[in-house]
Specification:
The chain is an alpha/beta fold and 403 residues long. The protein has a single domain, classed as Ribonucleoside hydrolase-like (Inosine-uridine Nucleoside N-ribohydrolase, Chain A, Alpha-Beta Complex), CATH 3.90.245. It has 16 helices and 18 strands. Helix 5 runs antiparallel to helix 11 (243-253) and helix 6 (125-140) crosses helix 7.
Amino acid sequence: MNAIIKQIACFSLATVPVLVAASCGNNRRADEQVPVILVSDLYYPAQDIGDNVDLVAPFALKEIDLVAIIFDITRSHLKEDGISRDPGFIPVRQLNTIFEKEVPCAAAPYDELSSPEDRKEEAPYSQQRGIELFLQTLEKASRPVHIVSTGSLRPIAIALNRRPDLFHSGKVAAIHICAGSSSEDYLEWNIALDTLAAARVLRSDMRVILYPCASAEGPFDKDVNNTFWALQDLSWILSLQDRRIKNYLAYNILRKTDRPDFLSYLDEELPEQDAAALRDFRSDRFYGSGGAHYVWETALWMQLASLMLVERDGKGQIVRKDEVLTSDDVCLEELWPVTLTVKDNGLFSFERCTGGSAVWLYYRADPKKQETLLNQAFPLWYDSFTKDLVKQNPEHCLCYVIN
């Protein structure tokens, strides 16, 4: 990459930190954490293991202050294909234990909106707790909070319908949406979960940052405006330095329902049969698209944390913006200001504009090269999380020796 393109890449990826800083106020320090409410369709056992794997990042990233998790549950997925699921309390409890945190979590209503204005006030108490936690967290926030959605937009639509005044009070910095398609001709999974909710949020006047999951060809295709990429191998998990992170990933990827002792499992030596199953695990056996594990959320967390993907000495690395070297080949990513046209069924089209828009759209210049570099960088990134944990708790290091 020549020097001019490299400078453009560095400037373009800085778009998100600029948006984050602006929405958090001019007094935000460069090292100040970004407060985040995560709205996730997280289940146990996993419905999509990507949600459980990607949850490590907001817990581990020093740049992120994860203040609450709202479970975005759809009733039909609680029992399907002979599998019974619950909201993701178990993976959250595991990560709270590993990272010594107490991130609160609760479930939102399970059923689709009956209208764009639906407040779901008839939902049972157990499903009201998610909306209550959502609104209470915003009310108590001392700085504008970033809302991250990686499932349907139902909990956000309900919260917005109940307290539009709170959403417009300066408490919400931006809504980051990992959903939708870069083409108005493909109805993507997350949008299809609740089309009325999607239309409600996308038509609001809130600041929205879109990270489409799919393209016109579907969710396993790569184009410049969607986020999908595929990890080709999962054996690197077995080399992670912190035993508990390794075991968390194995427990959730392998859906270890035969082990109800989900906390004890974290501290054990990984059973050899589970290690073998992890080496052999491939998502393409289920979905027919190449790759061992499918990923959609990496771009969102990297951008929110002001991280960059670079090629350094022939290998991919994920680094902070201030760690980029002049010799690095930076993978160009940016946000485009766009005008959005939203249909009643949640499908949307966009047009790039010159500025002044409340809606921004993710862009990557070279999806294939990005995927190649991420296959090298992602395992190193997760291992960096485990190194920090080992410094704090050396007894959980796989190489720990008692003198």
